[in-house]
Design goal:
By secondary structure, the chain is mainly alpha-helical. The protein contains nine helices and no strands. Helix content is about 65%, strand content about 0%. Helix 1 crosses helix 3, helix 3 runs parallel beside helix 7 and helix 5 packs parallel to helix 9.
């Protein structure tokens, strides 16, 4: 159910961010629902792939989306899967999809695909340890390693969970390829990360990638919602709305960091994760 909710909500989320950015820059804004029509248009086009590519090129976008939807199944926002350690399974399902995305980009044989895969791999290596430590800290403060046993924010664990939320916020920007880690609208060689891997994709393959990127951001918003008090679905919708507003303002008034500065920014993810883990161990 959670995966289906994410699949339906993903175009509205990305469309709302684009609508807000257009409104903030005084451009004629399109409806937030336009993304549904754009995706339908892409899905109706023919499948095209480079002449020298293999079936990996076609499998990549499909596995990226399936990995993100499978990870969403483990979020207990609505009835879904749950067992001890499921946050590890969910995170590595996302990473499995990313692995096939990098393979599909390399499969094209283009310089841009290789460049984007290298950069995406580095961003993943820098962001993953902090995210794992942050969720491990939340698990230590809760009832076990399962996502269903994560604690909610309260006076007794406020510092630990605020650090976890900060770490997840940085991870969301990296995972979703958003500013200041990446610019989803750029096509400049010096600044492209995620987009460099998608240049040879079009039609249904590009639609799958765009859906997967939004579903991954909703997954991290769902993780944050689990740590906040209140009815989970309502809290999740509030977190999604807050992120749509934050991304709209950040990408209108902010700038993308230089690639060489990304390790500095992503080190905050690790720092928050380490501090949260130390705080959780201290309270045991």
């Amino acid at each position: 159910m959670t995966a289906l909710l994410f699949l339906l909500l993903a175009p509205l989320f990305s469309g709302s961010v684009k609508w807000l950015k257009a409104r903030l820059t005084h451009r004629q804004e399109a409806s937030p629902l336009l993304e549904y029509r754009n995706l339908a248009k892409l899905l109706s086009k023919a499948w095209v792939r480079p002449g020298l590519s293999t079936p990996v090129f076609l499998l990549g976008p499909t596995l990226v989306l399936l990995g993100a939807l499978a990870a969403a199944l483990f979020l207990p926002l609505l009835p879904g899967l749950s067992f001890a350690g499921d946050f590890l399974v969910a995170l590595y399902l996302l990473n499995l999809g990313r692995f096939f995305q990098m393979l599909a980009a390399l499969d094209t044989g283009s310089a841009f695909g290789a460049q984007g895969s290298y950069r995406e791999g580095l961003v993943t290596i820098l962001a993953e340890p902090g995210t794992l430590m942050a969720l491990g800290a939340a698990a230590l403060a809760g009832e076990g390693l399962g996502l269903a046993g994560l604690p909610v924010l309260g006076p007794e664990n406020a510092l630990v969970l605020l650090l976890v939320l900060a770490s997840l916020a940085v991870a969301l920007l990296a995972e979703g390829a958003r500013m200041p880690v990446d610019d989803p609208t750029t096509h400049l060689e010096l600044t492209m990360v995620h987009e460099a891997q998608l240049l040879d994709h079009g039609g249904p393959l590009l639609a799958l990638y765009e859906l997967a990127a939004s579903v991954k951001m909703l997954f991290y918003a769902g993780l944050m919602a689990l740590l906040l008090p209140g009815p989970k679905v309502l809290v999740f919708m509030g977190v999604v709305l807050a992120w749509a507003l934050a991304l709209g303002y950040l990408e209108t008034f902010g700038v993308k960091l230089r690639y060489l500065r990304l390790p500095d920014f992503l080190s905050y993810n690790t720092l928050f994760g380490v501090l949260a883990l130390l705080g959780a161990i201290w309270k045991l």
